[in-house]
Design goal:
This protein is an alpha/beta fold. Helix content is about 50%, strand content about 15%. The protein has 11 helices and 9 strands. β1 and β2 form a beta hairpin.
Length: about 260
């Protein structure tokens, strides 16, 4: 683990994952992406974690790739980007496959495959009212990565996704919320507190049910209804045998709040 990405798990089981390269606006290169992937794997293996709160240090959440590093590679850039893109892809895939919800707290710019891609891969996005969002790939002669060509279309629809990816508008928080890119917009001064409050709601929910539901939703991206119905049925049957499911049903009958234990 390096200081490029930091993680701290609080007493509520919230894993605070911090993109920590403020001097580059958390620009992503191979070492940064390796650190991100390693961090996500560590979170996956930590039984304490009930939710992930993802944020960025400095003025921006993440401005995308580290363009200075990219430019320094010269004719070797294609080889370097093949490696960087591979790390970005497995990091994003690992993020979507976590069994716990991922809440991105976004301030400043979220741009490029790194910033914009992480926004699209998060389960929830709480943004400061001053936040800005941009794809930016074709602006520098490249194409979207981090799965954005799929996830963005799912979030905002084909027409809006084409507009965002091909014309590169800078979306403010209000615009991003209106088209469905974000979950919630809050005053910039309240971003940390509001995001943490949002994350904490998952500390008292049934973790197996949360993880299974997240898996069903992400697994359904690009699938047909017929493909997913058997998997839904299998998952519901499996969950019905858990102690948390029995506790949830008892709580409804007894008209009280359930006490889930992840069992």
């Amino acid at each position: 683990m390096t200081d490029l990405v930091r993680v701290d798990v609080d007493d509520d089981g919230i894993a605070h994952v911090l993109l920590n390269s403020p001097d580059t606006s958390n620009g992503m290169d191979v070492p940064f992406l390796q650190a991100l992937h390693s961090t996500i794997l560590g979170v996956h293996g930590d039984p304490r974690v009930r939710a992930v709160l993802l944020s960025g240090a400095g003025k921006n959440f993440c401005a995308g790739g580290n363009v200075r590093v990219f430019a320094s590679k010269g004719e070797q850039l294609p080889d370097y980007l093949r490696e960087a893109t591979a790390w970005l892809q497995i990091a994003v895939s690992a993020l979507t496959q976590l069994n716990v919800p991922v809440i991105a707290a976004v301030h400043g710019f979220a741009a490029g495959g790194g910033g914009f891609g992480l926004v699209c891969a998060a389960d929830f996005v709480i943004a400061a009212d001053t936040a800005k969002f941009m794809s930016g790939a074709v602006r520098v002669g490249m194409a979207p990565d981090a799965g954005v060509s799929v996830t963005l279309t799912q979030l905002v629809g084909l027409r809006k996704a084409m507009h965002i990816l091909l014309t590169n508008p800078v979306l403010d928080a209000a615009e991003a919320l209106e088209i469905g890119l974000l979950t919630k917009v809050v005053p910039a001064a309240d971003l940390t507190a509001e995001s943490l409050t949002y994350a904490r709601q998952f500390t008292s929910t049934a973790p197996k049910a949360i993880g299974a539901t997240k898996r069903l939703v992400w697994g359904g991206v690009g699938a047909t209804l017929a493909d997913r119905l058997p998997e839904e049925a299998r998952t519901v049957s499996e969950l019905s045998g858990t102690a948390d499911s029995r506790e949830g049903l008892a709580a409804v009958i007894e008209r009280r709040e359930p006490k889930f234990r992840g069992e």
